[in-house]
Amino acid sequence: MDRAIPVPRTADLDGPFSWVDHGGPEGAPVVVAVHGLGGSHANWHDLAPLLTPTHRVLAVDLAGHGRTPRAGRSASVRANTALLGRFVEQVVAEPVVLMGNSMGAALSVLHAATSPEQVRGLALIGPALPRMRTDVPGRALAKQVALFAVPGIAERSLARRRSRLGAEAFVRATLELTCADPSTVSAGMRELAVQLMEERGNGPDAEQAHLEAARSLALLVTRSAAYRATLASLTAPGIVLQGRLDRLVPVSGVAQLAELQPGWTLHLLDGVGHVPQIEAPRRTADLLLPWLASLSLAPAPDVSGTGPTDLLAGAS
């Protein structure tokens, strides 16, 4: 089967907002793919075409990422959750399945909690989860967290590193951090990620946007009680995929979800790191497709009561 050519699109949501339409059958359910911190629509390059035989897949670029500049907007978790919500409400204009990776999974959770009528289901891949007291970050993650905490110095350091390495080496270093085995990543995905970095479509303040998002994400996951309450309040059906070799999100966090959402489907993937959709797209699709098919048979969730919304205020 020939692969459909992804179509770049833009809308004005108080500034340029970019996404890629991967196509799908007319009238098919819509899956909105939401990338993680420092990512873009390129993160779905290999998985999206595997879902389009039965679903329409739209891969967004959040503010300060991909081809969406901040353009005077915030790149925080709170702001990008609102931006995602506007895209679903004003552009897609129908309930969707939110498929998010890492930070994108957290944004999907927050949007589903505040606007449950807009979300048919949640597919969370390597989701950023409430931090547990027993979590000990790895050396690479701890180093990044320490750097991000210093305003001004962090922005200059990140800009110098990107300039020194160049787009190709920077993408390679990112994949080495997020993937269990970077050699599994397709050449097409790598090339698209490099191209986007070289284009600098995310604007001249990309470093500031990245760090604003990182700091607000760190605040979100450390507000563990509020975040857990939000997860417990969700009414949408869910599926969670996490690599057993994830260096950024402790695998122990999946146990929280088993308690908070006992009806969700949980999968731990052997030999995979933080980005299963990049490292193992076929395996990821094989797990997602039956679950996606089941959504059309399930009764509509009860959205008469919404979950906690104050968590967004703290993730600004």
UniProtKB/TrEMBL annotation:
Domain AB hydrolase-1: 29-281
Top-rank lineage group of the source organism: Bacteria
Record-linked Pfam families: Abhydrolase_1
An example molecular function term from Gene Ontology annotations: catalytic activity
Gene3D superfamilies: alpha/beta hydrolase (3.40.50.1820)
PANTHER family, sorted: ALPHA/BETA-HYDROLASES SUPERFAMILY PROTEIN
Protein name: AB hydrolase-1 domain-containing protein
Taxonomic source organism: uncultured Frankineae bacterium
